[in-house]
Write a structure and sequence with these properties.
This protein is α+β, with helices and mostly antiparallel strands. It is 43% helix and 19% strand. It has one domain. The strands form two sheets. The chain has a three-stranded antiparallel β-sheet with strand order 1-5-4, with no helix packed on it.
Length: 141
Amino acid sequence: MSLINAFKISSTGMQAQSARLNAVASNMANAETVSSTDQGAYRARKVVFEAITPANAQPSAGKSATAEVRIKEVTQDNSAARRMYEPGNPLANAEGFVFASNVNAAEEMVDLISASRSYQTNAEVMNTMKSLMLKTLQIGQ
């Protein structure tokens, strides 16, 4: 695998983790929002990745396979919203209930830490590759 291919893999991994961090941030920002209907309540979003290998990426005659990470889709958690009895809330329905988002703050914090560490790891890979390239250039000096 060439170093350019390794840079591409790491950079697409960083882009994917950045999208995951944005989804977590959106979920955390809307964790305490309420709505007057179950359908109007905020639903947690999750980013789904896929590994892409080009059709011509079969290693052959001096070429190496290249892969990358892409965002396949952003899904929405369709589990029921939390139903809370708050008759004084202006958004309460006729029965006095409001519907809160289905975001689990603890789960989101775990996702945040995982995405952050994955992003950091990809950045370290890129720095290591850069360092190796610079050391290689210094061999002839």
